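A quick aside before the break. I want you to see a complete sequence-to-structure record at least once, exactly as it would be stored in a machine-readable document. Don't worry about memorizing anything.
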Amino acid sequence: MQEQRLKLILDSVIRLARRGAMSNAVNLLTKLRPVDIAQILMQLPQSEREAIFSALVGSELTMAAEAVSEMGTESAVALLSTLNRNDATRLLQELPSDDAALLVAEMPEDLRDELLETMKAEHSTVVNELLGFADETAGRIMTPDYFALDEDLTISEAITALQKRSEEFEMAFYIYVVDSRNHLLGVVSLRQLLLNPPSTPLRKIMIGDVIKVTTDTDQEEVARLVATYNLLAVPVVDQENKLAGIITVDDIIDVMREEATEDIYALAGVDADDRALGSAMNSVRRRLPWLLLSLGGALIAVAIVRFLLLPSNPNSLLLAILIPVVATMGSNAATQTMTVVVRGIGLGEVSWETRWRVTIKEALVGLTNGLVISVVVSLIVALWFNPVLGGVLGLTMIFSLLFAGMLGTLIPVLLKRFKVDPALASSVFVVTFTDIVTFFFYLGIAALFFKTFKL
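That is the input. The structure line, written in tokens, reads:
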């Protein structure tokens, strides 16, 4: 029902925009939620999108800012770049500081500097402070607008302060308890405020063991903590344990989506900025290096086949015919293992300390699968061609799947150890090394069998 309604509104907005009735189109959009406005804007043809967005900023600045907050970073920056500098500045000042910093960071340097210069000092100062933290860290994505009170205040005083200052904060899920120098001492939930006597000091009901992160904590680790402990917000402290800001659950969801997108793209050797509706040349530029690297690995495998395959042996043709089976099984097994391990690294389940336990488990899985596949393929090839060739392929499957499990575990863990995104291990490193090992065993075992059985 909602999808059909949005489709009708989208069609109406397009018709109104093409007739030049921008105010009517904007009025139609203002009846929607910000996320729906963002969705409709992204589906409009480019010229209509820019015109309607400009009109929305001109007449409904707050709603335009809320819609921008619901967009992807790339789309939001593209729209902001179409505005005149005055409107772009006004819109950035209307956004929460963490959202503004996220967008400004992705803009061209000259535009970024120009907008920061024209923003009001109180806004540009906060944005510049957030930009001072490294990308993809807690400091970069936190909001400095948090609700903190002194430990000696009573519940009654806390509620009064919350009522007076509620409009200053993006979200107030928790009250953070601090001392006179802003050191984080504890946290109080809104539920605790309602269930305890009004005269109770905050220090009596606060939770002292606060789940927190530092400004340099990786955003993926922040997301893991929030998901593990079911938090609505997590406080961010500096090296002296002074409260610097908070990260709310809506920002964490964005981080999870961003990290998941990066991992999925990286598993296929594709850059996270590559988009289905983006520039063809941009996609070529981002994908070609990985394809060339993959080609290099494939040529190494070909060289092994070239020098180990016995040209004078009549069975060489049969060996060549069965190469797709060998390559496919090893690559698929390696990809399965690598996907599980990369996901485990992202969830914090797999680390350098647990590498051998995971490797042994995946090697056992590979060995078991290899034994089953070996029996099946040996029987088929023995009946189809000859028993010796069936034995070659069967034994190869055992070694191939065993090493696929080990390589699919160790390579991502090693890359993580050297601070390289483990998802990049997928199609290039794990699969290529698995193919090389598989071909080496396949042709080595074949040579041994042919010599032993004098074929």
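Two observations worth writing down. The CA atoms of residues 232 and 249 lie 5 Å apart. The mean pLDDT is 82. We'll return to this after the break.
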